[in-house]
Design goal:
This protein is of the alpha/beta class and about 675 residues long. Helices cover about 15% and strands about 30% of the residues. It has nine helices and 35 strands. The chain has a 25-stranded parallel beta sheet that branches. It has a six-stranded mixed beta sheet with strand order 28-29-35-34-31-32. Strands 27-26-30-33 form a four-stranded antiparallel beta sheet. It is globular. The relative contact order is 0.05.
């Protein structure tokens, strides 16, 4: 009987424990007890903070033991809790059996990519050295390399594989040296030091759904779905962690001065939110979406996985998009709305333009399938590798630089590289480009009768010769006050109306009308029944100069750098050759072309600068000051300063007498 009662008591205790555990999972993790041994310790604040957030645990005796070294397994467990990493693969470490408390955390850390092991060993119980900790944390937080290296007295002792991470962490103030300006790379990192470094790295953690408003002194991280971030100012990066899984995160009225890293979340909404750095999408299983609304702006977007960008925020939101070479095969990258330049460095993927206008698309690798839906327009598509382009959407110019290109529908214009032998067009347009209205290969219909004192004389044109007068075959002359120019619309800008250049395709027997162009409306009748040619009439105004930049240079700290003509109306001045620690007073860009003004796009802000004397010249301090709304003295202009402001490039549109072109100054370190 006694045994039966004991069994009932044990059953009650187990049931109670299960119920408590279930409630904890339902309502969130219970706050951890404050460690007993940190009162008065120099790291008391961060230790208590991260204990209450459930990120760090005390030892079984209730003490944190802040001065003990932290092991590789312990640091991995902390990082996994912050990001809520869950992906688990057996990394095959020789010293992990699988039944240790840390086995799962070590394998998760390996799958996340921040723990590599050494010679097949994870060394989970080995204390982490200071340089190892810097590497693990820099990888986990995807920190971009620092612009300048640190100057620790013992820098020579830092391993080559750890130098970049140590420099980056130290330059940004995340990790500090020891007294005497030494880093002590081989010293063991204590538990207190590890928590202090994490606290420096991550000022704000959002781990609960609902509305949040805050100012983050450094980086911030969201690891739960259902979070709504309102009017937050984040002075570093924002991380949308894998813990969000398939949830939704909304950012409304926020400013992210660093980059936005999206590793988790199925739907992310950027409403009136500004991302000064990069938007990096790397959700491993793809199929995520980012929607922008209102006044949202994103300086640059890097897509490392399949995802869809939906731009409802206007033309200045996604100006520069790069599809990374590492996007997995068969993933789909989608675009809805208006976009600037899109560069696709991945192969064997799908690109889908469902609607909107895209200024330029460049395909660099083979095996890409592009779908341009009927509501989408691509101004210029450059194909540097074999690809298939489907869909009834409009492509104004296709630059084909590789064999093996298949086009379901013919673009308005195809510019083919000399070495390209074959282009497959499944559905060519009716009529040849540049064909005279009223004439086709088999057109014999009678032309319409003209009006206003002019008669569309003769039968329909049968020879399809560019330059023929609409409605008139060779030798025919319309009646009226005089015969105008015999060339097609689309003549070169700057031509005088009524002047025939005898260009290729012109009939040498045709005589231009010698009189003043007829004052009446040219033949008012309907042209012959043939389909007019698909060529676009020239956009230039007669009598103006050709809209093009002749040359462009940038001067940085006395160093002159020539711009490179990209062949598509864009010149690029690349400042990567400028030393990163250079101090200079201005970046001036000069372009010759009779330009009268420049529209400058800096950090998504458009401003217009007026110039004269037939050339354009401006300084970076002028542009950045206008974009930010306050003055930056020239003496403070350094490459690092520009990078700190989140400026990766300055786009300049040159407005000349005959049209526009553009120059891009790239700060791509």
């Amino acid at each position: 009987m006694q045994g039966y009662k004991n069994k009932r008591a044990l059953k009650f205790i187990v049931t109670a424990c299960v119920l408590v555990s279930a409630l904890a999972l339902l309502f969130g993790q219970a706050a951890a007890a404050q460690p007993r041994d940190v009162a008065g310790h120099w790291a008391e604040g961060p230790i208590v903070k991260w204990s209450e957030l459930g990120i760090i645990n005390s030892k079984p005796d209730g003490n944190f033991k802040p001065n003990d070294p932290i092991t590789r397994a312990e640091l991995s467990a902390i990082i996994n809790r912050i990001f809520r990493y869950t992906e688990y693969t057996n990394a095959g470490f020789r010293d992990i059996r699988g039944d240790e408390w840390y086995a799962r955390d070590i394998n998760i850390a390996a799958a996340a990519g921040y723990l590599k092991g050494s010679n097949g060993y994870a060394n989970p119980n080995t204390p982490v050295t200071r340089q190892e900790a810097a590497v693990m944390l820099a990888r986990a937080f995807q920190l971009q390399p620092a612009i300048s290296s640190t100057q620790f007295r013992d820098a020579a002792q830092i391993a080559s594989w750890a130098r970049e991470a140590v420099d980056t962490m130290a330059a940004r103030g995340y990790i500090n040296g020891r007294p005497g300006n030494i880093f002590a790379p081989l010293d063991k990192m204590t538990r207190a030091e590890a928590i202090k470094v994490i606290d420096n790295l991550l000022g704000t953690l959002v781990n609960k759904p609902g509305s949040h408003t805050f100012t983050a002194a450094s980086n911030a991280l969201v690891n739960t779905g259902g979070a709504v971030i309102n009017n937050a100012i984040i002075n570093g990066n924002l991380y949308l962690a894998p813990g969000i899984d398939s949830g939704t995160v909304t950012l409304s009225g926020c400013e992210i001065k660093g980059s936005l890293y999206m590793e988790g979340g199925y739907t992310v909404i950027l409403e009136n939110t500004r991302v000064n750095g990069q938007l990096v999408l790397s959700r491993k299983n793809g199929n995520a979406s980012v929607t922008t609304t209102g006044t949202a702006t994103v300086s640059e977007t890097v897509m490392k996985t399949g995802a869809t960008l939906i731009n409802n925020a206007g033309n200045n939101c996604f100006n520069v998009v790069t599809v990374d070479a590492g996007v997995p095969s068969a993933h789909t990258v989608g675009f809805t709305g208006n976009f600037g330049k899109i560069t696709v460095n991945a192969g064997n993927i799908n690109i889908n333009f469902s609607s909107g206008n895209v200024s330029g698309v460049t395909l660099q690798q083979p095996g890409v399938t592009v779908n341009v839906a009927g509501n989408a327009t691509v101004a210029e598509m450059t194909l540097n590798a074999a690809a298939t382009v489907n869909g009834q959407g409009r492509i104004s110019i296709a630059r084909v630089n590789s064999n093996g290109v298949v086009l379901e529908y013919e673009p308005d214009e195809i510019i083919k590289k000399d070495t390209v032998q074959n282009i497959t067009i499944i559905n060519p347009r009716e009529g040849e480009p540049g064909e005279t209205p009223g004439g086709s290969d088999s057109d014999t219909q009678d032309p319409g009768t003209g009006g206003d004192d002019e008669t569309g004389g003769g039968s329909g044109d049968n020879d399809n010769t560019p330059g023929d007068t609409p409605g008139g075959d060779t030798g025919e002359t319309g009646t009226g006050d005089g015969t105008g120019d015999n060339e097609e619309p689309g003549e070169e800008p700057g031509e005088t109306p009524g002047e025939d250049e005898n260009c290729e395709g012109s009939d040498p027997n045709e005589t231009p009308g010698g009189g003043t162009p007829g004052g009446g409306t040219p033949g008012g009748g309907t042209p012959g029944g043939g389909t007019p040619g698909g060529g676009t009439p020239g956009g230039g105004t007669p009598g103006t100069s050709e809209p093009r930049v002749l040359s462009a240079t940038a001067t940085v700290g006395g160093q002159s750098i020539s711009a490179v003509d990209q062949g598509n109306g864009t010149w690029v001045v690349n400042l990567s050759s400028v030393p990163r620690d250079s101090v200079f007073s201005t970046i001036s860009v000069t372009a010759t072309a009779g330009t009268r003004e420049a529209i400058v796009n800096c950090m998504g802000i458009i401003t217009t600068l007026q110039f004269s004397n037939g050339y354009l010249s401006f300084s970076a301090s002028q542009v950045i000051s206008k974009a930010l709304g306050f003055t930056i003295p020239d003496s403070l202009m350094t490459v690092k300063t520009l990078s700190d402001f989140g400026v990766s490039m300055i786009s300049v549109t040159l407005i000349g007498e005959g049209g526009t072109t553009s120059i891009t100054v790239q700060l791509n370190y």
